[in-house]
């Protein structure tokens, strides 16, 4: 990851480095969102070919092949939205080149550093502290969730597996289990964690625990969790799985809100979350008549690697460095 970041930085001129590079302590790091908006940093539109290649290689090295393909497909959906919303080719609201890169700290040094890629429906954050890499918050969205119009991307469902397996798990439950799992008949308009620096308002664990599931249901639940973690490089995936196992897989909850039957593009909004002592995963498909998906992975102990950074700086200060 550091090699890829350094390679990207070497492609930049002085003014571009000023735009891209910020101190790790800059609060800009926590000002993140997944809506279409102007963003600080250097976006793909203002890069030359070698810079774009180097920037996207930063993304490629921290994701799995499947995860990187999702990133490319989400970017490509901006072209679909231009057609869907009858926007001109030079439109800047739905722009596949409006994805910006920022680097915090110096990846060539031994001190903690981080970087992010962000644009509409993508917000990726990576922080390295003493060899440990945090990869959350990590947001991916899809609009349309299911491409229905007559374009080359017709039929595409970038986050379809996450939707389908959520329903598969829900439909595996008995009537009594569903009473515990389904928290509300109406889905929320948005994921609860939104773009908060720290997750708040979800302190109460609700739904059905893995411990209360049958062996077959547990396997589906584990596959659903793996769908999200499989987006990332295998080292990061294994790091997160080890953390989940240490905290106890049986302590993971599954909760649902909204329609219990998948009716793609027909206004049947639905939401689910996976939550435990260390992790929060949210899926929401409610907006645009339930054809607009938001998903996020949050590490409740390691977002932005804040706790490790506090520990690092405390030790450095104690040592007089």
Describe it for me?
The protein is built from ten helices and 13 strands. By secondary structure, it is an alpha+beta fold. The protein folds into two domains: 135 residues, no CATH class; 142 residues, no CATH class. Strands 1, 2, 3, 4, 5, 6, 7, 8, 9, 10, 11, 12 and 13 form a 13-stranded mixed β-sheet that branches. A hairpin with a 2-residue loop joins strand 4 and strand 5. Helix 1 runs antiparallel to helix 3. The chain is globular and about 65 Å long. The relative contact order is 0.14. The model has no long low-confidence stretch (mean pLDDT 95). This is DUF3500 domain-containing protein. It comes from Salmonirosea aquatica. Pfam families: DUF3500.
Q: What descriptors fit this protein?
A:
13-stranded mixed β-sheet, 20% strand, DUF3500, DUF3500 domain-containing protein
Q: How many separate domains? A: 2
Largest sheet: 13 strands, mixed
Q: What is the N-to-C order of secondary-structure elements (H for helix, E for strand)?
A: HHEEHHEEEEEHHEEHHEEEHEH
Tell me the total number of β-strands.
13
Using only CA atoms, what is the Rg?
20 Å
Secondary structure category: alpha+beta
Number of helices in the DSSP assignment: 10
Strand share of the residues? Answer: 15-25%
Query: What number is the mean pLDDT?
Result: 95
Percent of residues in helices: 25-40%
- Give the CA-CA distance, first to last residue: 26 Å
Query: Looking at the structure, what is the overall shape?
Result: globular
State the low-pLDDT regions, or none: none
Pfam families: DUF3500
Organism: Salmonirosea aquatica
Protein name: DUF3500 domain-containing protein
